[in-house]
Amino acid sequence: MKRAIKFVLIGVGGIIVLVGIAAVYMFWQMGQPLYKFGSVSAAENLRGPLDPPEQTDSSVWRVESDISLHFEVYGKGRPVIIVHGGPGIPYPNAWKGLKSLEEQYAFYYYHQRGAGNSTRPIDRFESKNYPKNMTKLEQTLGIGAQIADIERIRRILKEEKLLLIGHSFGGFIAALYAAEFPEYVEKLILVAPAGMLTPPQKGNNIFDNVRFRIPTEEQTKYDSLVKEYFNFGSIFSKSDADLVDLHTQVGRYLLKGMGYDISLMDAPPTPGGWSTFAVYFSIGRTPDYRDAVANITAPTLILHGDDDDISLNGSREYEEFIPDAKFVSIGCSDATISGHFIFDDCPDQFGEAVREFLD
Prior knowledge:
- This protein has about 350 residues and is of the alpha/beta class.
- About 40% of the residues lie in helices and about 15% in strands.
- The protein contains 12 helices and 8 strands.
- An 8-stranded mixed sheet has the order 1-2-4-3-5-6-7-8, with helices on both faces.
- α2 runs parallel beside α3 and α2 crosses α8.
- The radius of gyration is 22 Å and the shape is globular.
């Protein structure tokens, strides 16, 4: 009897050890970046090939057999691709600052996969296998998939080299594309690009900075919301709609901290759910892409609003690590703020800076 009990205890102990090892591995994996620089250009860890399927609908870009990207085009002439920020938040309208350039250029505002009116390939995960879910999320909606889509867009448009503009988190994605495919980018414009080249510093990241700019009586609620936002331990129990709602709530606070009307988060199109959190898994807790962006060879312009101090350190990082990048800070006396959305805050000054660089 004692011997039987001993074997049972050994068995239970073994299971506990295995569960413990699995838990440690899971949390370690959550901190490791799932996107590896160079993987997209090598066509590795992708859900589909870089060559897009046949285009049968001129109103969308079909980038995989079951994934299409919604886009809107303004202007005529040479294509310019706009990579939206968020992550996962397409623009409700064309940028005012590019209106004066629409006689020379066709500006394509596309919705990234999993966001806006583009295909949302994941609603909910049925599996409880955490590593398996992470892999599926990365291959379907992660940074690698987003970079691959830009290359597929280039091939669909049959452009030898792209004119590429990325804003905020879209600036980060655009920069990584230009680093992975330097031979296919003619000119790169980064508008207040997200500071994701190096690990965020405690007390000096966008979430901490915003906290100090919202009313004191709202900070407790904000802290609770941000804690839930980054509660990746239970994330695979949520649906795409759950994550859209969570992202929208946090987005309202970020807008308030930046000095903007929070109702902007409620304007269509619908933000990304899983696509937003997929890119967080992609970069992990300790991103370091300084060496990656050093591979960019295209002339690069970094535009930043005079009042956008929350994301200034990020823009300066790109200036430091992208070879020969030019940094321009834009202000305008006739605007309430020259902030994160500088293309609408100071359209005349923004448009002139873009025109001068592209011409």
